[in-house]
Amino acid sequence: MEEALNTGVVVFDKTMVKGPIINDQNNSIIGVSIHNSDPIKAKLIIDCSGYGGVIRSNIPFKTDFDKQIRREDTYISYVEVRNKKPSVSESYAFLLFGKQGYSAVQSEGYPG
Questions:
Q1: Nearest to 93 by CA among 75, 81, 77, 76
Q2: pTM of the prediction?
Q3: Quick one: average pLDDT of 5-9?
Q4: Burial of 82 (0-12, 13-18, 19+ CB in 10 A)
Q5: How far apart are CA 23 and CA 63, in angstroms?
Q6: How many of the other CB atoms lie within 10 Å of CB of 96?
Q7: What's the number of CA atoms in the CB half-sphere (13 Å) around residue 72?
Q8: Using CA atoms, how far apart are residues 42 and 30, in angstroms rounded to an integer?
């Protein structure tokens, strides 16, 4: 996130997106419409709206990907974010939980 912000990326947290803004001349997404705000235009848009995918599912033109996620392509996941203890170095560890169990990722120096 820090690297993205350092390159000029603007993050709109807690923003309710209504759908994509489409350039009909070349069937491309040029921005998003926002609830209670002016539209946002961008060169790159990342749809982080989860399963429903408000941008992905509302693209009006044909795409090379599924606009709706099939149930068999889903699984329950869990992410836990904790504040770093003062005794812990800048290293980190995290767990990824999914359909097939969990994976632990640990970096050197983490007392976990």
A1: 81
A2: 0.58
A3: 88
A4: exposed
A5: 14
A6: 12
A7: 0
A8: 6
